[in-house]
Amino acid sequence: MVVKFFSNKKGGSSKAIDYLLNEREQLGTARVLQGDKDITRKIINSISFKQKVTVGCLNFEEQNLSDEKKRAIMQDFEETLLPGLDKNEYNILWVEHTDKQHTELNFVIPKIHLESKKSLNPYYHKADLKRVDLWQSKTNLEHNLSNPKDPSKKRTHEVHQIRHINKDYEQLDKLLHNLVEDGTIKNRDHLKELLTDNGYTITRSGKDYISLKTPESKRATKMKGAIYNERFTSLEELRTISKETSRDTRKYNNRDTQRELRDIREQLNKHIQDKSEKLTRQYHRELHQEQSKDRELPQEEVKRDRGHTNEPSQQQNISNDNINHSRNSNTISTNHIPDDNIRHTNTQISTKQRNGVLLPDNERGAVNDSTRTTADGRKSRTYQDIGRKVRSVHKQLEESDKEVRKSSSRDTEYLRERTQQFSSNISERVRDLTRSKQDNNEQSESHIRQIDRIREYRQQQRYDRTNSTYLTSRKLDRAVKRTESIVQEKQAERKARYEKYKDLVRPRRRSQGMSMSR
Which residue in 219, 297, 259, 276 sits closest to 84, CA to CA? Predict the structure, then answer.
């Protein structure tokens, strides 16, 4: 799944809804999943700002997604894109397209905050790209969707809006790969020459790409892949590049997805919290101020509670001191009074009994019991208040203890995950080293085999040369012997011929000499 935001330089209009719901709605390949197209159109038309609408899509390679999964992904995307805002504060329209080989969930968001009538931009590319990219990775891992970051999903060329141009580039890419496999193209320079000779224009060459333009297209297209890499200097180097690509693919497929998902969630929660605070400050200033005050209240309440817990004890000490002082003063006064005056004071006690200044021993107990009950009630109420506050403090301490334990367990879990990650990285590195060692051993063995073949070939050539010289020498010997035999035969024939005609020649000469003498 890929998240795309369509570029809109002029600010957009309600024509985006018309594009999403054109003849495809009648053909059954487009439908509204969420929202009301008429309400969204009216909101867009009522906006007086230049930037009026944000349009994008969630592009899925899978075609068998259920409606429940689609709605869950849509809800999660809205909460990630516009955190801290309620449903009644923004408007969004979701339209599904199924006319291609994949599923598209298109969204249209008017750029206005419905309650404050302020401008609302759901997506700033520089500020929100990281958050949206993390959400994309999290959703692909959670729902087991195809990931564009998979090395096996990489495209070899850019996608154009004109479909027949894409087909032309796809056919060209297949043709070039077939020529490389056949051995017709042996390096990157040869590939460039072949393209320029056939009418293609190469506008730029990078480390791992070539930008070329067909005679029909107006702009160039990047062609990426092993055959377009500057390291493609020979077929052997191309094989090493393909081995590296396959190794990267194996490493991606064997990664720890659970650990990666936990890390992505932690990072995403931080970004969502920052965005939520920003939107709250922008559109909910009063609520944000109240929340900041509420955060300061608990500390003040704790201080106030501590002050209340100290005050009753001070008041209690003061009252006890007063009671003891009054008792001591009464005992002193009675000890210093003479015996004659004691009787007089007893009579006065009876007269002043109703006023409650002094009471006899039998009535003093009843009055003291009533006052003791009221004091005990006050003390019990203060003790109850103190107990409630102590219990609340205990609860806060228990909650903080739980949070500390959770954080410590989280830290231990994080350290454990980090150690596992470190060990897995080390094991992966060891595996890579063993694989590279095996590859080097294979290459060295292949080189040794090639050297052995060369040596055998050279020995064979030497043997062939010596054998040919031996054969030629034997031929020469035979020819010499043959010529010698021929010469001997000729000499024998001449000798025999001489012996044959020798007798005939001699008498003739004698006769010639006799005739001359005569």
Answer: 276
8 Å CB contact between 195 and 215: no
Query: Is the pLDDT at 17 greater than 80, yes or no?
Result: yes
DSSP 8-class letter at 157? B
Q: Is domain 2-147 given the CATH code 3.30.930.30 in the classification?
A: yes
What whole-number distance in Å separates Cα of residue 431 and Cα of residue 247? 11
Whole-angstrom distance, CA of residue 192 vs CA of residue 204: 11
The span from the CA of 266 to the CA of 137, in Å, is: 13
Distance CA 258, CA 142 (A): 10
Domain boundaries, the chain: 2-147, 163-255, 359-487
Beta strands in 324-460 (DSSP E): none
Strand, coil or helix: what is 3? strand
* pLDDT tens column, 210-240: 888 877 777 788 888 888 888 888 888 888 8
- State the DSSP string of 97-124: E-SSSSEEEEEEEESB-TTT--B--S--
Tens-place pLDDT, residues 193-215: 888 888 888 888 888 888 888 77
Cα 305 to Cα 327: distance, rounded to the nearest angstrom: 34
Four-residue CA torsion sign, 214, 217, 219, 223 = negative
Site of tokens 């228990």: 398
> How far is CA 127 from its chain centroid?
17
The Cα–Cα gap between 400 and 484 comes to 123
Give the pLDDT mean for 365-378.
48
Rounded to whole angstroms, the Cα distance separating 77 from 100 reads 23
- Is pLDDT above 80 for 29? yes
* 49 three-state secondary structure: coil
What is the reported pLDDT for 516?
A: 53
Sheet with 221-224: strands ordered across: 201-205, 209-213, 221-224
- Residue 54 backbone phi and psi in degrees, to 5: -115, 125
The Cα angle at residue 429 between residues 425 and 430, in degrees rounded to 5: 120
- Tell me the per-residue pLDDT of 309-322, one tens digit each, with 9 for 90 and over: 444 444 444 344 44
Q: What is the pLDDT of residues 131-144, one digit of tens each?
A: 999 999 999 999 98
53 vs 208 pLDDT, higher one? 53
Place of tokens 């005739």: 515
Mean pLDDT estimate for the chain:
76
Among residues 156, 160, 180, the alpha carbon closest in space to that of 234 is found at: 180
What 3-state class would DSSP assign to 447? helix
- Compute φ and ψ for 7, nearest 5 degrees: -70, 145
Task: For residue 311, give the H/E element and its range.
Answer: helix 285-336
Report the candidate in 269, 291, 267 with the shortest Cα–Cα distance to residue 281.
291
* pTM for the structure as a whole: 0.51
Please determine, for residue 284, whether its predicted confidence score (pLDDT) is greater than 70. Answer: yes
Q: Which helix (H) or strand (E) holds 446?
A: helix 361-517
What is 339-353 written as a DSSP string?
HHHHHHHHHHHHHTT
